[in-house]
Amino acid sequence: MVEKRIGSILVMDKGDVVGIFTERDALNRVLDRGLPPQRTRLRDVMTKKPVVASPSVTVEEAMVIMTERRLRRLPVCEGKRLVGIISIGDLTKWVIRENAHLQRYIWPEYPG
Question: What is residue 82's DSSP assignment?
Answer without folding.
Answer: E
